[in-house]
Amino acid sequence: MKEGVRMILFRKAVLIIHGFTGNLYDNEYLMNYLELDPRLDVYARTLPGHRADRFSSAKVEDWLNFVDNQIKELINNGYKTIYVIGHSMGGILTTYVAGKYKQIKKIVLINAAFDYINLKQNKQDLKERDLEKYSHLWEKALRTSPLMFYEFTKLVKKGQGYLKKVTCPVLILRSTRDEIIPYEVGDKIYQNIGTVEGKKWITDVKGAWHTIISSDRKEVTSGYIRDFLKGGYRWKRNIKKEI
Questions:
Q1: Model confidence pLDDT, tens digit, residues 205-231
Q2: N or C: which terminal CB in the chain sees fewer CB atoms within 10 Å?
Q3: Phi-psi sector, 3: left (phi>0), alpha (psi -120 to 50), beta
Q4: Neighbours of 122 (CB within 10 A)
């Protein structure tokens, strides 16, 4: 056995998948944080259709095939243990591959977009004039083609079927002030995912918006994710309903 192959058998791969109209910057802090662990190799790539100047020219099949090929590449490179972390739409894509590959041992779903209209929070923010977090949404909306948004809605509909096929341990994170994903979506994910009780956890991130990892809650959230991936006594001791 070659030295490189022998070494990789003891390492674990982490694949981070960003959300719809998102990019690698949304999860940059988490990527850098996890890379500090010498046993973790962190990977992330930009999804099809997510150019910096305009979001277009991508279909559901493009996204599914893209993440599927990423997992296959990691497996072909010798990884026996793979963790997948998905934010927003990336959460749906995470459940898709988690239901297919036994090498995926744990997943983290961050504000997974199994629904995408949070009118309750929108009304509260409007009432309180807390509109700062919406500026980036309006900017992205102007750069997103209607056809690509339609493809996103198709993926959301497919997502329920992916949830049922997941059996590995899962950590579900949801923001208490998410401007996009309704708070109740976290409960629906917990109830419908195929993972058995005792291997699935749901935790609220207090005061966070949709993009948790690029917010002021990024440090505590990244640490909590690391504890989940490491597992063992430290994770069991630190499990929380809210962070």
A1: 999 989 999 889 999 999 999 999 999
A2: N
A3: alpha
A4: 14
Place of tokens 């923010």: 125
Locate 129 and state its tokens: 């004039």
Contact between 17 and 46 (Cβ < 8 Å): no
| Least confident interval from 113-117, 125-129, 133-137, 194-198 | 125-129
What span, in angstroms and rounded, lies between the C-alpha atoms of 54 and 111?
Answer: 23
pLDDT at 10: 76
Residue 185 near residue 114 (C-beta atoms within 8 A) = yes
7 to 38, 79, 100, 113: CA distances (angstroms): 12, 10, 26, 36
- Name the residue among 79, 65, 109, 86 with its Cα closest to residue 15: 86
Q: Which stretches of 25-145 are DSSP H helices?
A: 28-35, 60-76, 89-98, 119-127, 135-142
Mutual orientation of helices 218-230 and 28-35 as an angle, nearest 10°?
50
Residue 207, phi-psi category: left (phi > 0), alpha (psi -120 to 50), beta (remainder): left
Percent of the chain with pLDDT over 70: 83
The whole-number pLDDT of residue 202 equals 98
- Asked whether the beta carbons of 91 and 113 are under 8 A apart, the reply is yes
Here the tokens at position 138 are: 């309006």
Residue 1 has pLDDT above 50, yes or no: no
More confident residue, 26 or 109: 109
Which token pair is 62?
């493009």
Sketch out the chain's domains with CATH numbers. 3-238 (3.40.50.1820)
